Amino acid sequence: MRANFIFSEVWIGLRRNLTMTIAVIITVAVGMAMLGVGLMINTQVGMMKTFWYDKVEISVFLCSKDSAMPACKGKGATPAQVETLKGEIQGIQGVKDVIFENQTEAYKNFQQSFGSNQALVQAARAEDMPESFRVKLHDPDNYQPVIQALTGKTGVAQVINHKDLIGKFFEMLDTLRWAAVIVAIVLVLAAALLIGNTVRLSAYNRRRETGIMRLVGASNLYIQLPFVMEGVIAGLVGGVVAAVMLIVTKVFIFEALSKYLGTSTALGWDSVASVISATMVIGVFICVLASFVTLRRYLRV
Amino acid sequence: MIHFDNVTKVYANQNRPALDHVSVDVDKGEFVFLVGPSGSGKSTFLRLILKEERPNSGAIHVAGKDLARLSNFKVPHLRRRIGCVFQDFRLLPNKNVYENVAFALEVIGKPRRFIRKVVPEVIELVGLEGKAHRMPDELSGGEQQRVAMARAFVNRPMILLADEPTGNIDPATSIGIMKVLDRINRTGTTVVMATHDAAIVDSMRKRVVELEDGKIVRDQSRGVYGQAY
Questions:
Q1: In what residue span(s) does the ABC3 transporter permease C-terminal domain sit (chain A) (predicted)?
Q2: A153 is a domain residue
Q3: Closest by Cβ to B109, choosing from A208, A214, A222
Q4: Could you read off the pLDDT of B186-199 as tens digits, one per residue?
Q5: Which domain holds residue A171?
Q6: Fewer C-beta neighbours within 10 Å, C or N terminus of chain A?
């Protein structure tokens, strides 16, 4: 096997089909970048889910005096009622932990959460804060029984599942991920067809050479390798461009995102690296596959 | 060297067989003319030897190998032992004489040192010494055919197949081509040449196999092109 012979053939082939090669590179690059973004969103969502689901709880707000909630009927929850409720909640299956938050603590939390809005903090008093139970579950997905059991109890103003709130956010991320993956699949398909076309053009351009190679007994591998290598090189270059796009995405989108969501859920460079290598492997594999399938049809050996 | 036993070949979508129960033996070192009108099956005969086509029935042995039992993987190795020359030369227009001949060795992975040694020898054998760096379009038809013969012979094949090698060449130049083929034959290479050229067949006085409608109608040692023509 003479490597320099193969490479000169590959170079000639790529140069002759320059526009097609560029088209292949762009399609592979965008396709692989979309796939990579999909994978990155996937990792990000996974990390955020484990992070947030640990903290997900159900808040059971209790009636305070003069509460406007219809469930309270204008009466506040008595200390005795609070004790009974606590016992009941602990008795429900799937409950891991119950924490009582009194008005002072609630006020502290409120001050913290709305620290940027001093006017609101000033206006609120500790007496305005509702008392509540923070209920932690073993399985955050299994919240239905707790909510059913507590809604409508005497002294309970409102039951709020935090998962409903962040669930909306995760739903949006899921949609984004699927959109990216679908776009990636379509583009990968387009890339495969383009590669097939390029290889076909290449085989047609070099039919004289391949005919003679066949005639003098060159092995199938020797005849096909330059064409497959063309696909591999286009795939690799596309992969490198995709890698650059993914790094840019990580820097400008995912790092901006982590500023809002807290650094503990930031996507690390190690996951970016594994996503890049995965997309590279997939890209090159698809290129090789498309080349081989086309050669079977257009280069009779 | 080449052994056809009751070989029939029918191309798809055709009723009439291209070769019809053909049996023929060609020994090592023989020179055989394959004659007959167009469509009589001469090219099919040559394509079957190269395993470019498969027979519908019958057995073909080439260089001791049963082609029916030769896997596709080994077909290139068969073809390395067979040289081919065509009417239309089939040279690479962007390579010079030396490169065209060397190409045949490069693509079967021969080392560069070997190529440098062998190619000039073969170019001399076909009578093109001093023209190694000409491009094909700077050569006459006869010279281009010599390049094609050099390429076919450079790997020292056991068999040389020639499909109307003088078809595009004037009679005077054809004599030179036949001399080269004769020289190749004298090295012990079996030569099978399909041709329409009666003058050449008559002058060479070699074995003649005549095909008509896919059947062998004559097989004559030291024959002529045909009485009827």
A1: 182-299
A2: no
A3: A222
A4: 999 999 999 988 88
A5: 3-52+167-298
A6: N
Q: What is the ipTM, given to two decimal places?
A: 0.85
Q: Is B18 on the interface with A (CB under 8 A)?
A: no
Residue A161 lies in a domain: no
Q: Verify that A183 and A282 share a domain, yes or no.
A: yes
| Contact check, Cβ <8 Å, B90/A208 | yes
Tell whether A77 and A134 lie within a shared domain.
yes
Q: Does A219 touch chain B (CB under 8 A)?
A: yes
CATH for A86 = 3.30.70.3040
Spatial separation of the C-alpha atoms in residues B151 and B147, rounded to whole Å: 6
- CB within 8 A of A27, min separation 6: which ones? A187, A190, A191, A194, A238
Assess if residue A151 is contained within a domain: no
Asked whether residue A37 is domain-assigned, the answer is: yes
Kindly state whether residues A64 and A41 are assigned to the same domain.
no
- CATH 2.40.70.10 for the B1-81+159-224 domain, yes or no: no
Domain count, chain A: 2
CATH 3.40.50.300 boundaries in chain B = 1-81+159-224
How far apart CA B167 and CA B191 sit, in angstroms, is 17
Q: Does A1 touch chain B (CB under 8 A)?
A: yes
- Look-up: residue for tokens 């074995």? B207
What is d(CA B102, CA B119) in angstroms, rounded to the nearest whole number?
6
Q: Which residue has the higher pLDDT, B105 or A80?
A: B105
Whether A301 has a pLDDT exceeding 60, the answer reads no
pTM: 0.71
Contact between B78 and A217 using a beta-carbon 8 Å cutoff? yes
How many CB atoms are closer than 10 A to CB B200?
21
Number of C-alpha atoms within 13 angstroms, CB side, residue A27? 24
Q: Which DSSP string do the residues of B150-190 spell out, in sequence order? A: HHHHTT--SEEEEESTTTTS-HHHHHHHHHHHHHHHHTT-E
User: Mind listing the pLDDT tens digit for each residue in A160-192?
Assistant: 877 777 778 778 878 888 888 888 888 888 888
Q: What are phi and psi of B178, to 5 degrees?
A: -65, -35
The tens digit of pLDDT for each residue in B77-86 reads: 999 999 999 9
